[in-house]
Amino acid sequence: MNYSHRFWLYGPVSLFAILMLGVVAYWFVASHEISARLDALNGHEVAPGVTVHFAQKTMRGFPFRLDGELDDFQIKIATAHGPANWTAEKFAFHSLTYGRTQYVFEAAGRQNLSWHKDDGSTRSYRFLPGLLRGSMFAANGELTRFDLEAVNVDSPDIAAAQVQLHLRKNPKIDAVDYYITANDVHFADDLAPAFGPNLKLFHAEGLISPGTSFDTLLEGKGDWRAAAEDWRKRDGGVLVKSVVLNWGDLNITGKGALTADAMHRPKGALQMKVANWQPLLKAAQQHGWITGSDNGLAAGFLAFAGGAQTSGALNATLGFQDGIFSVGGIPADTLSPLY
Question: How far apart are alpha carbons 126 and 105 in whole angstroms?
Answer without folding.
Answer: 20
